[in-house]
Amino acid sequence: MQGKIAVEEHFTAPGLEELISRIGWEPADWARVESRLQDVEFRLAEMDRLGIERALLSLGAFGVQEIPERSRAIELASRANEALAGIVADHPARFGGFAALPMQDPLAAAAELERCVTEYGFKGALVNGFSDVDGGGALYYDDARFDPLWERLVALDVPFYLHPRNPHASQRLIYEGRPELLGPTWAFAVETGTHALRLITSGLFDRHPDLTLIIGHQGEFLPFALPRLAQRMSHLKHVRLEKSPTEYLRENFYITTSGNSHTASLIGLLLEVGADRLLFAADYPFEEMADGATWFDSVPISEPDREKIGRMNAVRLFGL
């Protein structure tokens, strides 16, 4: 398919390499990934070869979320966004941007979001999971302090991409002795899906019904777990939501194909949430761009659905 729009593609810039995690990479493989994070020309050549018209770029994991010092997180988020704005300005027809946000300070995150959307034309924000805070804790975004950020997202009419990271170090006992299960093999999806559930069950989407979130990797297990969860939660009298968790997934979330080129999962998503809520992504360069693109071009779905997922949903959502 020509004209695809890839919505979870990552970058870094000189001086920001410390913000990118090397979890699960052999040194030679990581050197290639790190080079491609900064190589604009090779990225464009691959996009041309694979029929990708535009890519929405974001700072790779774990970004500023791993920086516990609030002032330093604010500074590094600003630097990352300025670097990304330069790349987008050089290639405005090929790239768009998601803002990195210093979620360690919710008001500063809201201000940085507005700056990036209004000054740079960014299409929303991508945040790499919970944020570390001084003292060794973790800040999850169902906290009431984030309401100003959610209000700003709705006012600006842009989405929030909840991207994975590993669980907090204090929460990894189940992975002890099995480091192969950390990172994208398993722990990323469990952590991100659970974080998304915190947002859903907190009543976030009842307070902000027009808020839009994006999750990747064909839904971080959620589409296939929510029916069971919703059925059991219906028996919990202390949980008061206006809709079922599955309805929030269908109405307030978009789900991308990033890094998960699995046909049966995509068919399941079409049945569970419908083609209008799905977006194409390759997760480059942490995954090979060609793997995601060639799979998507040939996956056995209808051509109208391919056009929606590969292009038109992104055009509508991001105002492209």
Structure in a nutshell:
45% of the residues lie in helices and 12% in strands.
Structure commentary:
The chain has a single domain, classed as Alpha-Beta Barrel (TIM Barrel). Helix 4 runs parallel beside helix 5. The longest helix is centred in the N-terminal third of the chain and has 21 residues. Strand 9, helix 10 and strand 10 form a beta-alpha-beta unit. It has twelve helices and ten strands.
Comma- or semicolon-separated keywords:
alpha/beta; TIM Barrel
Share of helix among residues?
40-55%
CATH-level-2 architecture: Alpha-Beta Barrel
User: How large, in whole angstroms, is the Cα Rg?
Assistant: 18 Å
Identify the CATH homologous superfamily: Metal-dependent hydrolases
Kindly, what is the distance between the CA atoms of the first and last residues, rounded to a whole number of angstroms? 18 Å
| Biggest sheet overview | 5 strands, parallel
Number of strands: 10
**Global morphology:** globular
Question: According to CATH, what is the topology?
Answer: TIM Barrel
Tally of discrete structural domains:
1
Strand content: 5-15%
**Order of the strands making up the biggest sheet:** 4-7-8-9-10
CATH class value: Alpha Beta
List the helices and strands and how they pair.
Elements: E1 4-11, H1 27-38, H2 40-50, E2 52-59, H3 70-90, E3 95-97, H4 106-120, E4 125-128, E5 131-132, E6 138-139, H5 147-156, E7 160-163, H6 187-201, H7 204-207, E8 213-215, H8 222-233, H9 245-252, E9 253-256, H10 263-272, E10 278-279, H11 289-298, H12 303-318
Helix pairs in contact: 3-4, 4-5
